Amino acid sequence: MSPMLLGGLVGVLFGLSLLLVVRRLPFLRKPSVDDRIAPYLRDLGGPEVFLGVVDSSSPFYAIVRLFGPSLRAGAGRLERLLGGAASIRRRLSRAGIERSVEEFRIEQVLWGTAAFGAGLVVSIIAVSFGVGNPIGMLVFCGLVGVLGVLARDTYLSTQVRRRERRLLAELPTVAELLALSVAAGEGPAAALDRVARSCRGELADELQRVLGETRAGETLVRALDGLADRTGLLALSRFADGLAVALERGTPLADVLRAQAGDIREAGRRELIESGARREVAMMVPVVFLVLPVTIAFAFYPGAVGIRLIAG
C-alpha cells in the first residue's frame, strides 16, 4: 500500500472517530423523555426503565449498559428498514427463546458489526498486498455486514427447525407416558405434572409452562390451546386439541393418547421413508456429475493416447 493511501485511510478513521466522540458530548446530546423521567421511576420500573425491554438477566445487559443509545438506535433503524416484528416474535416463541424483538434486533446489529469488522480486516490485508482497491473493499465490507445481519435471521429459523424436530421426537414418548398415568387412575393435571417432572426436554418444559398457567388461574383447556399456538407444529396442535376435546367431552383420555402416539410414530416413519427417497435422488447428483465423467475419462483416455501415438 502506498504511503498516501495509508495516510488517507488513517485520516478517514480518525475523522470518523472524532465525529463520533463529538456527537456524544453531553452538551450536544439532547436527552429523551425516557432518560429525563427514568430517575424518578427507579423503584417502579427496575432495570427495564433504563434499558428498554432488556433486563438484568439478558446476555446483552452489559453491552446495552455501555452502548445502549447507539445499539437501540441501530436496532430501531433496522426494525424500520426490515420490519417483520410479528414474525420474529412468533419465531422466537417457537424456538423457545425468551427474548424480545428489541434484543433480537440488537443481536442482529452486533452480528452485522462483527461481520463488517471482519470484512474490514480482510480488506486492509488485501489492500496492503495490492489486491483490489479501497472503494471496492468498502463495498465488500458493507455487503459482509448486511450478510451478518441476515445470517442472524437465518440462524433463528434454523433454531426453530431444530427445536421442532426435538419436540416431534419427544412427543410419542410423552403421549404414551400420559396414557399410562391416566390409565393408572390419575387425573389429567396430575398426569401432566408427573410426566413434566419425570421427563427432560423441550416438551417437558412446555408442559411445565402449561401447568404454571393452570396454577395461575387459567383453565387446562385454554392452556393447552396456548401450547398449540406457541409451537405451531401440526402434530403437537393435534395432541393439544385431542387433550382439550377429551377433557371437554369426557372421551377416554388414555385411548386418545395411545392413538395419537401411534399416529405420530406412523407419521415419523412416513417422513423417514420420504426423506430416504429424497436423499436417494440427491445421491445421483455426485454419481452422474462426478463419478461417471471420471469413469468415462479413465476408460477412453488410454485409447485416445494410443490412437494419437499410432497416428504420430
UniProtKB/TrEMBL annotation:
Keywords: Cell membrane, Membrane, Transmembrane, Transmembrane helix. It is found in: Cell membrane. It is a multi-pass membrane protein. Its main location: membrane. The chain crosses the membrane at residues 109-129, 135-156, 281-301. This is Pilus assembly protein TadB. Residues 176-298 form the Type II secretion system protein GspF domain. InterPro entries: T2SS_GspF_dom. It comes from the Bacteria. Pfam families: T2SSF (PF00482). One of its GO terms (cellular component) is plasma membrane.
